[in-house]
Amino acid sequence: MRIRGMGEKAQQAHIRAIKDFAAFLKRPPDAATPEELHAYQLYMTDTGITPTTFNACIVALRFFFGMTCGREDMKRYMQFRSQPRKLPVVFSVEEVSDLLMAAPGRVSNTARRSASPTGPA
């Protein structure tokens, strides 16, 4: 891991992720099957691990199987999780009008008149 340029914290996180996987399996992780890997991913999802932590574990497992064990084939059984997108805040016509009414100045007067629900005065 040091040859790859990983920092100390990244190395510790990778080791912790592999230890957690071994604890789940109750045996050494280097002989894990695709079914066990799939079960572990379901376990992580069911226990409520955030997508960020889940993806960090997947990165560690990909490194472990690909670089340490030479089992590149296991990578195709690992799926990253996407984070749910937050919807943008959308103001109602009344909220926009209130916001413009609170703003001082000449430009604001023009904006207030044009943003009025009844149209420009």
From TrEMBL:
This is Phage integrase, N-terminal SAM-like domain. The keyword tRNA-binding does not apply. The lineage of its organism: Bacteria, Pseudomonadati, Pseudomonadota, Alphaproteobacteria, Rhodobacterales. InterPro entries: DNA_brk_join_enz, Integrase_recombinase_N, Integrase_SAM-like_N. GO terms for biological process: DNA integration. Coiled coil: none annotated. Residues 1-72 form the Integrase SAM-like N-terminal domain. Keywords: DNA-binding. SUPFAM superfamilies: DNA breaking-rejoining enzymes. One of its GO terms (molecular function) is DNA binding.
